[in-house]
Amino acid sequence: MVKNIVVVAIQGDYASHAEKAHEFFSGSSVFFAIKPEDIPSSADMIILPGGESSAISLISKLSGLDKKIISEAEKGTFIIGTCAGCILLSKKIANPGKAEPWKLIDITVERNAYGRQIDSSFKTVTFSESRSKLAGSKKCEGVFIRAPKITQTGKDTEVIADCQGSPVFVRQKNIFAMTFHPELSEGFEVYKIIEGIIRERQPS
Ligand code: GLN
């Protein structure tokens, strides 16, 4: 199903993402992408890690990686953005700094909304009733590191999970965004939901 996974490796915790995705999607190959030409034509999933959204935004713009990911998204490649990745996928960043949103999912985000680095924490993430079946659990642990908040969602944006009254895991078509770091938790709940939704969209 998911065979060729690309992890954007400009900055941030791309190594943990590669390990965790490879473990979950058994038999998959993982490619690291810094430039557009690093993305193979056979890519079926692109992961944008957490890190610093302004750095990833600026560097990917210089090489054209941003445009390449946008065109992959338009082709239907599954795109997963976590934390800084979520910020870049958004339609609007309330406090963008030097980060430019790629407008792939109809959400507004506020960067660093929980405070500074030292305000990072573990919080309980609760899945929507329909999606908790895919996860095999109603909740999971969320690792929030200088995380953004999703302050608005469009009418076509599905809220898959929330935390303390805010959406933290959302989807629109083939684009998934979450404000926490699923690659740093032990469980695979988030991956199970993504896999389940991919199955729904690609009936065998
Ligand atoms: N605060 C970072 C930003 O604005 C995101 C932090 C993260 O990805 N863990 O890009």
Description:
- With 204 residues, the chain is α/β, with parallel strands linked by helices.
- The protein has one domain: Rossmann fold (3-Layer(aba) Sandwich), CATH 3.40.50.
- Helix content is 29%, strand content 31%.
- It has 6 helices and 12 strands.
- The strands form 2 sheets. It has a 9-stranded mixed sheet, with helices on both faces. A 3-stranded mixed sheet has the order 5-6-9.
- Helix 1 links the parallel strand 1 (4-8) and strand 2.
- Helix 5 packs across helix 6 (189-201).
- The model has no long low-confidence stretch (mean pLDDT 96).
- The site of glutamine has 11 residues, from helix 4.
Keywords, separated by commas or semicolons:
nine-stranded mixed beta sheet; single chain; alpha/beta; Rossmann fold; 204 residues; three-stranded mixed beta sheet; binds glutamine
Task: Provide the fold topology.
Blueprint: E1 4-8, H1 14-24, E2 29-33, E3 45-48, H2 53-63, H3 65-75, E4 78-82, H4 84-89, E5 90-93, E6 105-110, E7 121-127, H5 129-135, E8 139-144, E9 149-153, E10 158-163, E11 166-172, E12 175-178, H6 189-201
Parallel strand pairs: 1-2, 1-3, 3-4, 4-12, 5-6
Antiparallel strand pairs: 6-9, 7-8, 7-10, 10-11, 11-12
The structure holds glutamine.
